[in-house]
Amino acid sequence: MKAVPKVGLDGLYIEDVLVDDAFSGVVPFYAIPPESDASGVDVQSEEVEPEPAGYIVGVPVPPGLFRPHFDLAAWEAYQDAVTAAEEEYQAANTEWGALPEEKRGKPPIYTAPEQPELWGEGLTLEEIEALHPPQEPSEMELLSNHVAKLILQNTQQQETIENTGAELADLKSSSEEQRQTVNTLGTEQIKQDLSTLDLKQQNAVLGAELVKKDISILDLYIQNQVLGQMVAALELKLLATKGIGGEE
Known about the structure:
Shape: elongated
Distance between the termini: 180 Å
């Protein structure tokens, strides 16, 4: 024997009932009608068929549901899919058996449709919350929560301190790099200033040399003019001497 759920016509769980171990599927159960009314008159008619009062379900209920609800419509659709798959398999198997043995090939294989999720939660969120109203925490729970908050706050502060230390180390490293860069730039600037001063001195020397050369050129020019005048005077004197000798 095993216990299986019993549901109402709406699919909501009612209770567990004992059935045979081989039981499976979904079968209806019927309410037992009274044999007679208060006056002793039989109200049961032999022509009236009894209507189901609910169903006994052979599908296990998954854990975690407050009031399980069995989807009867999904079960009916699943049974129709199973019937259609079986009929299709029987037709294919009959057609395969009617072929000559040398033309049959592999026999058809029955593939059962996948069973859908049939159980769900039958209560709303408000109804579930009503089943479990919030309770005032005990003094021990409050103390435990306070200690947990302090531990969390301490951990966060420790992380903040570590992050601040890392940022400070980064700032120190950046400051040292900047100081080295400034020193390097200062050294380069001094070198450039010295180079500029050297170039200025060299330029001054070159200017003095140019002045000297200009003076030398001017001196040579003057000397050249003097020589030109002397040559002209000699030529005049020579011409004069030749003129006197011609008259004689």
